Amino acid sequence: MRVVTVLLLTAAALAGAGGAAAAAQPQRAEQAQAFPPTPQDLFEELFVVVQTSGIFADGKVFVDAVPLSSPATILRQYRVERPDGPAALKSFVEAHFELPTSPRISMLSGRN
Fold it and tell me: 62 burial class (0-12, 13-18, 19+ CB within 10 angstroms)?
């Protein structure tokens, strides 16, 4: 979570004969992260290599894959192994992710 320093200017009325305004006070506020990290954020160069390698016909396959261990563990293992070539890369991905299955559409022709 990012901490963002925000200066908030506030004025306070002072009671008494002088009636002067108080000095502005800087305050610190936290800004919540609006969205969870993307697969590219989590898997860094592994994501780029998989998406640009063409090992999957559909670019959504890896995006929708479910990691079988933490992203940090998978990325660390990728950096150690450095799979060379499309077959090795696909094998690595299949070993570390549960890939989505494509839905099967069956149509019954002529039946109601």
Answer: buried
The two tokens of residue 12 are 């306070």
From the list 72, 3, 13, the residue with the least C-alpha distance to 33 is 3
Nearest to 38 by CA among 55, 62, 54: 62
**Environment class of 67 (CB within 10 Å of its CB; exposed 0-12, middle 13-18, buried 19+):** middle
Helices 39-53, 86-96: crossing angle, 10 deg rounding: 150
The dihedrals phi and psi of 6, each to the nearest 5 degrees, come to -120, 130
Give residue-wise pLDDT tens across range 23-59: 444 555 455 568 999 999 999 999 999 999 999 988 8
| Stated pTM of the model | 0.60
Length, in residues, of the chain: 112
Give residue limits of the domains in the chain.
42-98
Kindly state the tokens that stand for 69.
């261990």
Q: Which residues pair with 21 in a beta bridge?
A: 13
